[in-house]
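Aim 2, interim progress. The first record below pairs a target sequence with its structure tokens.
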Amino acid sequence: QLHLEESGGGSVQTGGSLRLACAASGYSGGRYCMTWFRQPPGQGREWVASTYTGASNADYADSVKDRFTISRVNAKGTVYLQMNRLKPEDTAMYYCAANTGYCTIPPVFSDIAMWGQGTQVTVSS
């Protein structure tokens, strides 16, 4: 059973960068879809990016494409989200999530088996 814990959030100005990390304890090398979601203030949770541990591809929401990069270190079970050229509309609580098997794009919330506790990202103008 995976346990997910995010870190790396903080406050930056528009145009800045942050790198979020999702540490997956209990990872034994199985195949998972690892996903980042975010929840802006007063809004619902939205998909950001996903990557499948059994392949090298990644998928991104249009709002973050070409600015964010999801990557993973399989041996450590850690997934990163590199966020560049941040905008105020990127302000949100960011969550790491996992489900066994392939990624469904966009993800289906009911497929998500494990969630982290979230890390806050605030982008000021």
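The second target in this work package is listed in the same format:
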Amino acid sequence: QRHLVESGGDSVQTGGSLRLSCVVSGDTSRPSCLHWFRQAPGKEREGVASISERGFTQYADSVKGRFTLSKDKAKNILYLQMDNLKPEDSAMYYCAEEGLGTWCPVVVATYNSWGQGTQVTVSP
């Protein structure tokens, strides 16, 4: 099983930027999909972005053109660069892993493991 630890959340104003990081440890030899999802109070979980073992990324329509997902395979760190942030982006952000790493849709039914989350707050 993998252990994931997120960081980088903060409070910013509309239009600002943040970069979230997720350190992945444990059984990193097994290929899998890596994800960022978010959840705001009273709202359902929302898949934000995913990346396959080969680096193919997919994004939710709500963040396309504003968020960029990348990973440093050597360091086992997943990044989410968030630009032009909006108040509706406010949520707890989690990184997670699942699947076999080949086809990695943004929306999945369940994850194998996820971190404790990092809070992003965007003020008007």
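The chain has a mean pLDDT of 95. This observation will shape the mutagenesis plan for the next reporting period.
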